Automatic annotation (TrEMBL):
Keywords attached to this entry: Ribonucleoprotein, Ribosomal protein, RNA-binding, rRNA-binding
Organism: Tritonibacter horizontis
Protein name: Small ribosomal subunit protein uS17
Pfam family, any one: Ribosomal_S17
GO terms for cellular component: cytosolic small ribosomal subunit
Signal peptide, first to last residue: none
Gene3D superfamilies: Nucleic acid-binding proteins
Superkingdom of origin: Bacteria
């Protein structure tokens, strides 16, 4: 099965080797026919501590790195 790749914006870099990435998805509401924006936060592994708040990044699924980290930063 292929690994998922998501795009988002770094919202926190306070932890060592970890960034919090907010990923937004848009979809049309089935009844209201209105475009809805939903966002979800993912914790991703950042080995070099290279990414700062506000950076647009792509993240990819990986094996669990810790209790909450299941993603790695792929590129900016």
């Amino acid at each position: 099965m292929p690994k998922r790749i998501l795009s988002g914006v770094v919202t926190s870099d306070a932890n060592a080797q970890t960034v919090t990435v907010s990923v937004e998805r848009r979809f049309t509401h089935p009844v209201l026919k209105k475009t809805i924006r939903k966002s979800k936060k993912y914790r991703a592994h950042d080995e070099q501590n290279a990414f700062k708040v506000g950076d647009a990044v792509r993240i990819i699924e990986c094996a669990p790195k810790s209790k909450t980290k299941r993603w790695e930063v792929l590129e900016a």
